[in-house]
Design a protein that fits this description.
Layout (H helix, E strand, L loop, with lengths): L12 E12 L3 E12 L3 E5 L6 H8 L7 E6 L2 E2 L5 H8 L2 E4 L11 H12 L4 H14 L15 H12 L6 E5 L7 H18 L2 E5 L3 H7 L2 E6 L2 E6 L1 H6 L3 H8 L12 H11 L1
Length: 276
């Protein structure tokens, strides 16, 4: 359930995309006129098959890519025309949970979480350490701050990645495949953690995922991308009831349907790497 924006927000929307189009080499169009709005307190699910443009859209939303056309607003601030220093200031308002957690193996878990605090503020290392321990406690990882990433499980790494994403007390959290590679019980735990934290902290979230069970468990709004376009959008119930055959094949995981089987070069290379 979305919450009314407090006085600290400049806009009723945590994130807004207006006509976002992304082309590469002036020819290959990956995103085409993508528009949506995320109210404060909502969890938006971005879903779609491999190669549909999800990852590109996420990069545009967090400012790693400037769209060929269109605009992106973070709490009312249009980010696509900002310089690096201005964009860095806006990025302090949101956290990021990466698909593979992206923890630094040479650092302890506490040091991983403290890193963005030290880089973005003038607090002393001892204060940053205390803040990191508090964030780890929020995700159920208290007492693990002295361990290295290699010493914990994949699900625990996701928790630490979320703690790091929350290190600067953001109003918005971006998550890239937060339950990828996890077993069903751990997935449910991560989903519950996402729901509990967004509700407790009053933050919004944008979640890119292939996991339909997870998507319908945590989402309040959804968009389904196909060939770089928003094919369907709405609440989880509206999406479930939408008769579009592409969407229904995707959310039900059927092999037969209008979506053809396609193996991209990247998919093939990733598959090859896992086998070697």
């Amino acid at each position: 359930m979305s919450e009314a924006p407090s006085n600290k927000h400049k806009s009723p929307y945590a994130v807004e995309a207006r006509g976002v189009t992304q082309s590469f080499d002036g020819k290959r169009k990956v995103l085409s006129n993508v528009s949506f709005k995320v109210k404060h307190g909502e969890i938006l699910i971005i879903m779609g098959g491999s190669g549909c443009g999800k990852s590109t859209l996420l990069k545009v939303l967090i400012g790693l890519l400037k769209p060929t056309e269109g605009e992106v607003f973070i709490d009312g601030t249009e980010i696509t025309k900002l310089n690096d220093r201005e964009l860095s200031s806006v990025r302090k308002r949101f956290g990021m949970l990466f698909q593979y957690s992206a923890l630094f193996n040479s650092l302890t878990l506490g040091e991983n979480v403290a890193l963005p605090i030290l880089e973005s503020s003038d607090v002393s290392p001892s204060i940053a350490e205390l803040m990191a321990r508090l964030k780890l406690e929020m995700v159920g990882m208290n007492g693990f701050e002295h361990l290295k990433p290699a010493e914990i499980s994949g699900g625990m790494k996701k928790r630490v990645g979320m703690a790091r994403g929350l290190a600067l007390d953001p109003d918005l959290l971006f998550c890239d495949e937060p339950t990828s590679g996890l077993d069903p019980v751990t997935t449910a735990t991560i989903d519950k953690l996402t729901l509990d934290l967004t509700r407790m902290l009053g933050i919004s979230a944008v979640v890119v995922t292939h996991d339909m069970t997870s998507a319908f468990r945590i989402g309040t709004q959804m968009i389904y991308l196909s060939d770089g376009k928003v094919l369907v959008s709405g609440t989880p119930e509206e999406v479930k009831q939408n008769p579009n055959p592409n969407l229904q094949q995707f959310i039900n995981g059927h092999a037969d349907g209008p979506i053809p089987f396609k193996l991209s070069k990247d998919d093939w290379l990733n598959s090859l790497k896992k086998q070697t």
